[in-house]
Design brief:
The protein is of the alpha/beta class. 42% of the residues lie in helices and 15% in strands. The chain has one domain: Divalent-metal-dependent TIM barrel enzymes (TIM Barrel, Alpha-Beta Barrel), CATH 3.20.20.150. The chain has eleven helices and eight strands. Helix 4 runs parallel beside helix 6 (110-130).
């Protein structure tokens, strides 16, 4: 199994020292889809010690996907920039969390919001298909967003969009916060193409709270022959040289024991 860490590409050397296989970047700071190419080009300086194979935070909060202020043409241009730049630097997976952008405004028709999100995902999936990238829907718990909160709900969008370049993500932290049953993960497993992990207690790096057991979660993925990647997405996780080594080693043990 390939394990990575969500951080800046400039820290790829430290991530490699921790024993990880790749970096997962932030689209807003790395690909910067709202700026023109001439301004963005200087942000990429070439391959680092590890590949940047995934990136999260697809859409900024003020570029709305749902609600009365959606500018679909602007979204199309933005996604075109993001996917073209992702292809250029070798990113193969883009993560659609974007709670601020997809959150349904109070009083707005929820069915209409769902239609808007489906339309956005189809458009973005088409752009990803043209560049050899997979877009994955990330469930976010209800404290962070009011729509697409569970793996089961994410799968309703995957089925509606029905596009080979639009698949599902499983995040252990959000999964546990929402008290989802492993049967939901099992049902979604054939469509899961990316995984995020962090402990439930404090959203710290895996194993650091001493209270999270990933083996049942991993067992479902292994049973489904999951062949994607797993990224550590934890709060206040910066010490890759020492803590990082412990975290990656912990994840390998948990995967092997699952």
């Amino acid at each position: 199994m390939r394990f990575g860490i969500c951080t800046r590409a400039s820290r790829a050397g430290e991530v490699r020292s921790a024993g990880a296989d790749f970096v997962e970047e932030n689209i807003q700071t790395f690909l910067r889809g709202l700026v023109e190419d001439a301004e963005w080009q200087g942000t990429w300086t070439g391959p680092g010690a590890l590949p940047v194979s995934a990136a999260n935070s697809l859409v900024p909060g003020d570029l709305k996907i749902a609600g009365p202020a959606v500018d679909f043409e602007r979204l199309q241009k933005y996604i075109a920039n993001v996917t073209a730049r992702a292809q250029r630097v070798g990113i193969r997976t883009l993560v659609f969390g974007s709670g601020g952008a997809r959150n349904v405004p109070e009083g707005f028709d929820r069915n209409k919001a769902q239609e808007q999100i489906v339309a956005f995902c189809r458009m973005a999936a088409d752009a990803c298909a043209r560049t050899g990238i997979t877009l994955v829907a990330e469930p976010l718990n209800r404290q962070e967003c009011n729509i697409i909160n569970t793996v089961g709900e994410a799968m309703t969008y995957v089925r509606q969009v029905n596009h080979k370049s639009f698949q599902c993500l499983a995040d252990s932290y959000h999964f546990w916060v929402e008290n989802e049953n492993l049967s939901e993960l099992e049902a979604a497993a054939p469509w899961i193409r990316h995984v995020h992990v962090a402990d439930l207690d404090g959203r710290v790096a895996p194993g650091e709270s001493g209270k999270s057991d990933y083996r049942p979660f991993f067992r479902v993925l292994k049973k489904a022959k999951y062949a994607g990647a797993i990224s550590v997405e934890a709060l206040d996780f910066n010490d890759f040289e020492t803590v990082g080594k412990r975290v990656i080693a912990f994840l390998h043990r948990q995967w092997d024991e699952a």
